[in-house]
Amino acid sequence: MENQMQQYIEKEYEVLFDLIKNGKRNMKDIADALSGSEPDRLVLVGSGSSYNACEIARPFMEKVLRREITTVYPTKEIDLDSLNGERKLLIAVSQEGTSSNTIAFVKQHKQSFMTTIAATAVHPCLLESFCDQHLLIACGNEMCGPKSLGVSATVVSLWISAVELGLVWGTLSFERYEELYKQLETVVSSIPECLLKSKDWVRKNTLTMKDARAIAVVGSDAVSGVVREAALKLDETVYIQSTPYDFEEFIHGPFCVIGTDVHLYFLTQDEDNWQRMYQLIQFAREQKTPVFHVHIGNADVPSDLRLGPDCKEYNSLLLLIPMQVICANICIARGIDIDANRYEELTNIMGSKLKTIMEEKCNEIY
Fold this sequence. Notes:
This protein has helices at 4-10, 12-21, 23-34, 49-65, 100-109, 149-169, 174-189, 191-209, 224-238, 247-250, 274-286, 315-333, 344-350, 355-365, and strands at 41-45, 69-72, 88-93, 115-120, 133-136, 214-219, 242-246, 262-269, 291-296, 305-307. By secondary structure, it is α/β, with parallel strands linked by helices. The chain contains 14 helices and ten strands.
């Protein structure tokens, strides 16, 4: 038994490498439009996995662009005028470009931004009709419900946008610009090996993983976006209640689930205070708690699954892979068909996607 999510995960290396190769071309119109017209603040908006992808990309983007970046849900009440900076740039993310709340956010707040950019994998789409510019997330329309390739492609596309704009705005030297591209190529080139290791690890632990009653995913603030995305995707695929925790948050109360039938997933990297996290991992195992530990980096960390190379700028991308593999495979072990469009009618009831009017609207515009 195979599902579409497994197939999309297998495509990540090829698609992400093409994104890098075509990064400058995909960003050309946006870079030209924003040359000499610099914002002093960026806002990223998206729902679900799009929000999580923004959160994964945000720390790198802030560092490269040297500007504060705010990630928001489209339904959050926010006073944009109260945010520091008079010239704000909005990037609205929606893989299919049909998220009703993201579109509503753009329509409501567009006047507060100097420029609005729609970042979508589908082109043309409804979202871009309300924005000034379009950033193509060149991964195609992921036809299954639980997104994997689209999440990774969104993260890489946002990283590339930061690198290209950093060169245009002068926050990156050309030498650093080239170095960041080379580092990203190195990390993406390691995906096939990372995928093989992850599949082998999941295969060896399937019997334990599939029997969880609940799951807690724990990581540092540096990988909080990955932690959130992992928990969301576990909910969506294996139908086990999963909760994301920052490490410091977890040790101030939620640690009480240790010793219960809650499974713990720890995501760590060299940059974290992983020694303290490992103390917690050892303690949890002493209490007979099922623990699964993924570490990325060069440190001699006794983890269940160790990935590399260590590149602190882009480690989050590799941490996504094993969690995606878990989701795509443990659902099969639990007898769940994630290709079956569970409660498809709920999308229409809630109006969360504007598919019914997208084609008509796009035909009017284009």
